[in-house]
Write a structure and sequence with these properties.
Blueprint lengths: L6 E3 L5 E3 L10 H8 L5 E6 L8 E5 L2 E4 L9 E5 L9 E5 L1 E4 L9 E4 L5 E2 L6 E3 L1 E5 L5 E4 L4 E3 L1
Parallel strand pairs: 3-5
Antiparallel strand pairs: 1-2, 3-7, 4-5, 4-6, 6-7, 8-13, 9-10, 9-12, 11-14, 12-13
Length: 150
């Protein structure tokens, strides 16, 4: 539990003070619209068949579906559509908002062992936060710091 009148520190080392009056109402949806990270999609060439909404990494100028064995620094984002064959252009978002998903509302989402999205924190391999669900269809993409697990 965070005391809302004390300094807080994030994993990324950012600090700040949250101060609320008793009349303040926390409106998650409004905060998302105002403070969602700006970003956009970039085009990459696929190196293999990749499902839509997959966490991908860059190697040799092409993207591939990520897994726990890849260097976390090579992860570039989440695909916005599928690549049905190798060598096609795929839009990848590094931060921002993806809509049209099937999610559990107000959950943190992680990269799964095969590059998918899951709201279950991994117990082994690598824990990489990819974002948080605004509702049952919208993911606010903001990658966290990867943590290697035993």
């Amino acid at each position: 539990m965070i005391d809302l009148n004390e300094e807080v520190q994030s994993v990324a080392g950012k600090t700040g003070v949250i101060t609320l009056e008793s009349t303040d109402i926390l409106d998650f949806a409004a905060a998302v619209e105002e403070y969602a990270p700006s970003g956009g999609a970039e085009s990459f060439i696929s190196g293999e068949v990749i499902s839509g909404n997959s966490v991908v990494y860059l190697s040799g100028g092409r993207i591939y579906r990520a897994n726990y064995a890849v260097n976390p620094e090579s992860i570039v984002g989440i695909t916005l559509q599928a690549a049905n064959v190798s060598g096609v252009s795929v839009e990848v978002i590094t931060q921002g908002i993806i809509s049209g998903l099937s999610l559990v509302q107000d959950q943190t989402y992680f990269m799964s062992s095969n590059g998918g999205l899951t709201n279950v924190r991994p117990a082994s391999g690598m824990s990489l936060v990819v974002g948080r669900s605004k509702d049952s269809t919208v993911l606010i993409v903001e990658f966290g710091v990867p943590i290697l697990l035993a």
